[in-house]
Amino acid sequence: RAPSFLDLHTKDNGAVEGNPDLDSEKITTLEGMAGYNFTENVRTTLTVYNNRATDIIKGVSTPQGGQHFDNVGSIDATGIEFELRAAFDKNRYGYLNFTFLNSENTTGETVTWTDPVTGDTKSRKQEDYKMGVFPDFMLNAGLTYGITENIIAHLNLNYRGERDRSGEKKFDAE
User: Fold this and answer.
1) Could you read off the pLDDT of 106-149 as tens digits, one per residue?
2) Whole-prediction pTM value?
3) Which residues of 51-77 are buried (b: 16+ CB within 10 A; e: fewer)?
4) 98 Cβ neighbours under 8 A, 6+ residues apart
């Protein structure tokens, strides 16, 4: 995504400050898809993908206790999608699709602190972790029925699995 006006130009807020030097987030995608038509009206597709997003715009803490926006994050997402679609005629069809997704924050942030006993400065690098934003499993099913030429009824069911978050953020000693 491109930085918003607020990401770039927030000023005099005390808590959050904009950054006019922000870059747009970047994403690299690799995707493969295969499909099969069982009949003229019944088909299926299978898609496998990997996305890597970098330069994620994120609020970063400042020494004064506030935040400013910076390009500091990266996210890896790998998934598989399956769809089955059946057309009964021009205005009547049904579908079923599901997605399995593994998404992790791979920024590897380094956290630095002062040991209260020794006064030594210590730092640790964060391991990859699940953010809890995207569900691991999604299911969609639907039926569309053309009642007349101008009236269509649609029934849709969506299920989103749990949004698992790593139990704790773990750090490796540097």
Assistant:
1) 877 776 666 667 777 777 676 766 766 778 899 999 999 999 88
2) 0.68
3) bebbbbbeeeeeeeeebbbbbebbbeb
4) 81, 82, 137, 138, 139, 140
Residue 14 structure tokens: 């005390």
In single-letter form, the type of residue at position 114 comes to T
Q: Is the Cβ–Cβ distance between 127 and 172 less than 8 Å? A: yes
In the numeric block, the tokens 């039926």 are attached to 143
Residues 6+ apart with CB under 8 A from 124: 110, 111, 171, 172, 173, 174
pLDDT tens for each residue of 64-99? 777 778 888 788 889 999 999 999 988 899 999 999
Q: How far apart are CA 14 and CA 47, in angstroms?
A: 46
